[in-house]
Amino acid sequence: MKNSGYMKDALILFVITLISGLLLGGAYQLTKEPIEKANLAANLSAYQTVFPEAADFQIPDDAEDAMESCNAELASGKFGNTGVEQVLQAVDEGGNVAGHVLTSYSEDSYSGRIRLSVGINADGSISGVEILEINDTPGLGLKAAEPEFKNQYVGKNAESLTVIKSGSAGDAEINSISGATITSSAVTNAVNAALYYVHNYIKQ
């Protein structure tokens, strides 16, 4: 009799857990699209800054699975602690995909996380970089948000970029901010994470 009571309690607990799981899954599916649209609207200005030729920005159907795979590979540490948070197609007036806008990040900046919006044309060249989040030192790391630094990325067409401390930067090189090499490298590696996704997860 005692055992049957345990079995009954276990069955009730199982049913409650199952129903709760189904309800949570349903709630996620219902809220997923509105959340994605809200994030898109909140960052629209940055997207337009890094890809001004785009008439619209759309979420690809396969982006979520591709980002998961990409981030697992980036976790190997090739570009430090980096990842990709969002991928959008940049669509022109005719409805053609002209390139992509990605939100990427690095955890290795001087004061922690830095998040970027990176525009990449269909030919693989960078159309723009905009800082979404940075907490670095004013006059040093915060210079990463200034045009003099971030505009260096525009037009670069390489699978990855490296930071140099001084001199004339080559096609795959970025000049560091004086006194802020750590931040310069973090920004560049966040850009590299976006480039990695484009070169490995977008069919050309």
Give an overview in words.
- The protein is α+β, with helices and mostly antiparallel strands and 204 residues long.
- It is 42% helix and 25% strand.
- Helix 3 (63-74) packs across helix 5.
- It starts with a helix and ends with a helix.
- The model has no long low-confidence stretch (mean pLDDT 88).
Quick recap:
42% of the residues lie in helices and 25% in strands. It is built from 5 helices and 7 strands; from the N terminus they run H-H-E-H-E-E-E-E-H-E-E-H. The chain has helices spanning 2-42, 44-50, 63-74, 147-150, 181-201; strands at 56-58, 82-91, 97-109, 112-121, 126-133, 162-164, 173-175.
Supply the key terms:
5 helices; 204 residues; 25% strand; globular; two-stranded parallel sheet; single chain; alpha+beta; five-stranded antiparallel beta sheet
